[in-house]
């Protein structure tokens, strides 16, 4: 008998949890390809309506701004995927009656939800990249695709959305069925992504607004990460960490209140 066998089973760590969650997302992706393909088709359908319908109505005005529209739509698909990855997942756990099983894990429910959200963001990145390539082919547009800068800026941008997803998930634990309100917030992302066009400085502290501006400058103007002013990068990081921390705090407070009220596992 080896020393490892004599000492008994090894305690699982966060590395094992992250690997299991990523593997789960991979299995869901490959075993249900129709659902993944359907999401891509629906996203491209709405973009086609936006592009061809807008070209009929606006003509050259739409053509002149098509780069910004593509970048904004790309960020919107990422944001919706990141937001729904936590809020909808927690809502599903509440409906299925499996929420308490997650709470009772050695890791706690919040770390499990966060890693599941991160895994879904990885999948969303892959799907949104496919959508981005299709949009470029449809419109015949060329963008500056500096992958490293795009990944860093987009990831920091949607961290704030993960925070909103955490807050929405915590409220779902308390009030159970609030799906209509959660879906409404997704359309608010369009306003946040469009905020840089308004030229109002204080809007930069809102989720997605500053990240949308930097992503536009990266993909349209070709600005690299190290070419941004340090203050812009610092603000992007501060907004991402701030909203993620705030959302996490709301989630923790909501789950504690649900425990006190005895409604954690009710539906």
Q: How is the main sheet built? A: none
Terminus-to-terminus distance: 49 Å
Helix content: over 70%
Q: Mean of residue pLDDT?
A: 78
Can you tell me the number of structural domains?
A: 1
Number of strands: 0
| Coarse structural class | mainly alpha
Cα Rg: 20 Å
Number of helices: 11
The percent range for strand residues is under 5%
CA-based shape: globular
Summarize the helix and strand pattern as letters: HHHHHHHHHHH
What ranges have pLDDT less than 50 throughout 5 or more consecutive residues? none
Please write out the topology.
Blueprint: H1 3-6, H2 14-31, H3 33-58, H4 60-64, H5 66-96, H6 99-103, H7 109-139, H8 147-175, H9 179-194, H10 209-219, H11 230-261
Helix pairs in contact: 2-7, 3-7, 5-7, 5-8, 5-9, 5-10, 8-10, 8-11
């Amino acid at each position: 008998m080896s020393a490892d066998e004599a000492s008994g089973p090894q305690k699982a760590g966060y590395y094992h949890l992250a690997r299991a969650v990523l593997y789960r997302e991979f299995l869901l992706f490959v075993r249900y390809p129709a659902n993944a393909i359907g999401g891509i088709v629906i996203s491209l359908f709405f973009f086609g309506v936006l592009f061809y319908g807008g070209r009929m109505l606006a003509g050259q005005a739409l053509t002149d701004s098509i780069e910004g529209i593509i970048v904004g739509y790309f960020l919107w698909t990422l944001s919706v995927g990141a937001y729904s990855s936590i809020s909808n997942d927690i809502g599903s756990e509440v409906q299925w009656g499996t929420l308490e099983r997650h709470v009772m894990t050695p890791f706690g429910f919040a770390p499990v939800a966060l890693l599941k959200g991160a895994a879904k963001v990885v999948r969303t990145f892959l799907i949104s990249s496919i959508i981005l390539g299709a949009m470029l082919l449809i419109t015949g547009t060329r963008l500056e695709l500096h992958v490293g800068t795009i990944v860093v800026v987009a990831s920091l941008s949607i961290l704030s959305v993960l925070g909103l997803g955490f807050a929405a998930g915590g409220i779902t634990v308390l009030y159970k069925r609030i799906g209509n309100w959660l879906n409404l917030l997704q359309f608010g992302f369009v306003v946040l992504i469009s905020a840089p066009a308004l030229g109002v400085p204080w809007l930069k502290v809102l989720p997605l607004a500053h990240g949308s501006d930097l992503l536009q400058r990266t993909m349209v103007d070709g600005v690299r990460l190290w070419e941004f002013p340090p203050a812009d990068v610092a603000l992007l990081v501060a907004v991402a960490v701030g909203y993620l921390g705030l959302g996490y705090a709301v989630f923790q407070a909501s789950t504690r209140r649900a425990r006190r009220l005895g409604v954690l596992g009710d539906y």
